[in-house]
Amino acid sequence: MAPDRNGLRRPNDPPVLILTSLAEGPKHGHALAKDIEDFAGVVLGPGALYGAITRLEERGLIEPLGAEDRRRPYRITAAGSAALAEAVRDMRRIADVGTSRLGLIAGRLA
Amino acid sequence: MSARALDGSRLLKWYPSRWRDRYGEELMALMEDVLDGRPPSRRLRLSMAWAGLRERGRETGLLGNMAPAAERARAGSLLVLCAWSAFVVAGSSFAKITEHFGQAVPARAQALSNGSFDTVYVVAIIGGLLVLSGACAAVPAFLRFLRAGGWPSIRGHVLRAAVSTVAATVAMAGLVGLAHTLSPAQRNGGLVYHPVVWYYLLAIIPTALLVALALALWTVAAVAVTRRLVLARPVLFAEAVLAVALSVAMFVITAATAVWWGAIASSAPWFLGAQSGSAASAFTPNLVGTMALMSVACAVATCGVVRVARSWRDLRLG
């Protein structure tokens, strides 16, 4: 996801995006890239996608399944689910604080 | 193989072979899905090259924290060695620039220029000894590696370096032979009126490039060999300490070179002008290039030292 017009970035960390996508079920590279583009608007290039897949597999957060016609699907592991849950909690905490404080600002302006 | 598949396999060359063996096929399949028959864009090529180089950096222990701490410490030390090789090229250029500078400097200004030059000279020798010490520390592991049948895996690197050394030596011998037929003024680019002077000046750059190539290939061979050695922790520690000392030496040499430059620029700018064959100026291209290369080498060495320090902390904690 590109920076918005104010230069602010939303959560676009490739490992988080990949784990979020795989939380739905196993996917291979192209399906992952398309799903991430659909739900987050982030276009992950092949190099960035496989760099993140490599790191996630090294850390045991995802695991490969049997290859299907050169395309190898990956699935999230229990450790990956726990890591994603923690990341989502962190993001939600920030989102909640931001929402709450924006509400305060809106209240003052009104 | 189609032209597209051929192109894809070329893009994969940026990645280390172990990574290609594991992920290459599926990455190729992904690229085919993404491209859908179109040729890869320049942006895609660049991103693939960048991603591949990052994987190489990770595999060698230069990037990331996935490689064992010992590998990261070794990678940091080898990065300092690479920086030293670049420094040797810059030092050779400095040695050429400073030829006969003592005759050009007024007696009242000689203390600073001579002192800084001597500092460069002495610290360069110390740096060379540090590198030699590092090589000696790795000799037992190297012999074990050879006895275990490791030669075929490094043969290509060593042979390429040896051939380039022979070529550089022949070129140097020719250049030195040519130089002996010229006066000091002609050797430094002055009084260009004889064809032999032109031959000499034209031969300097290719010869310098050959010498630099030989040095680079020996450095590559040293890195390739060292990465394959099984080094005990005390040896790794010794290499790390030597790498830090070598980095300090590079900074001292760079500082002394800057002092020498300042001293000559203020007391005998005509000497610098004569070196570049132009009017007297403190900013001659060869000296600016030399200082730039030294500065880059210092920056690279600093990255290596930081890597060594962080890895060593993890190694102790581990």
Please explain how this structure is put together:
The complex is a heterodimer of chains A (110) and B (318). Chain A is mainly alpha-helical and 110 residues long. Chain A has helices at residues 14-22, 29-40, 46-58, 78-109, and strands at residues 62-64, 74-76. Chain A is elongated and about 55 Å long. By secondary structure, chain B is mostly helical. Chain B has 2 domains: 3-57; 61-317, no CATH class. Chain B has helices at residues 3-12, 17-35, 42-60, 69-97, 101-104, 110-147, 151-179, 184-187, 195-228, 233-267, 269-276, 285-317. In chain B, helix 4 packs antiparallel against helix 9. Chain B starts with a helix and ends with a helix. The model of chain B has no long low-confidence stretch (mean pLDDT 86). The chains are: A mainly alpha (110), B mainly alpha (318). Chain A binds chain B through residues 28-30, 33, 45-51, 53-55, 58, 67, 69-72, and chain B through 19, 23, 25-31, 33-34, 44, 47-48, 50-52, 54-55, 64, 66.
